Amino acid sequence: MATETRRILTLTSDFGNRDGYVAAMKGVILSIAPDVIIVDISHQITPQDVMEAAHVLSSAASCYPAGTVHLVVVDPGVGTDRRCVALEQGGHFYVGPDNGIFSLLLKNSVPDRIIELDRPQFWRTPEPSKTFHGRDIFASVAGHLVSGRILDELGSTILDIRTLHWAMPISDDQGIQGWVVHVDGFGNCITNIVRAEFEELQHGRAFKCYVGNAILDGMQMTYSDTSPGDILVLFNSDDFLEVAINRGNASSMMDIKKGTSINVIFSGDK
Fold first, then answer.
1. 1-17 as b/e: b if 16+ CB within 10 A
2. Taking the model in full, what pTM does it have?
3. Tens of pLDDT along 32-41?
4. How far apart are CA 196 and CA 235, in angstroms?
5. Which domains does the chain have, with CATH numbers?
């Protein structure tokens, strides 16, 4: 029984925009919740890359109001015995495969509630496709959830989800070694080094940054602090250290990709 009407559902997948997969999921959702607002976070996730999906969704999810349902379908284990789950954390709801994506998204904090989606009456069909749980299980459950169904109706309570861990920077008083965790659509290279850790270790010292085929120094506040074509280092809107080129593509021009190491060396004593 529905208890309240939620209004917003976000959708993140690796399906791209060429085929009908996203449209099929939206059709299932709208058949259950015709008044829902569906927001596409991204459908350009690198295929099967759960870490990229978690990074992209985490940068957007906090901007949505409490009660939002986030449907994530990046599912390299579709059709296997990996679980289908839904969970609640901080007033937001998440639906998708239990393949580690939610532990990454929530930074391994314990969700307020977790259920396994084991009740076929809330699926699109009691015999879902072995290759498209996004349509036949996840979209249908998300539609019921955004219509106000409570989690306890939609499945059985479980106590944990599969855990994956972000790679953490390695640091000492002399510097930080991190890695590029995401390359955005502009070719900006986003690392796993956060502002708070950087500034605590820097303690006002000058630094050099070794990444790709370049050695950089000095921190910029925004892209236009440099001339077009110049390489720069800055903290982005999520407070991650980023390497960019003003009006250029740092990834292609500097031979940087996801997983590339970045080394920050501070000068002098702290």
1. eeeeebeebbbbbbbee
2. 0.91
3. 999 999 999 9
4. 10
5. 8-157 (3.40.50.10790), 170-266 (2.40.30.90)
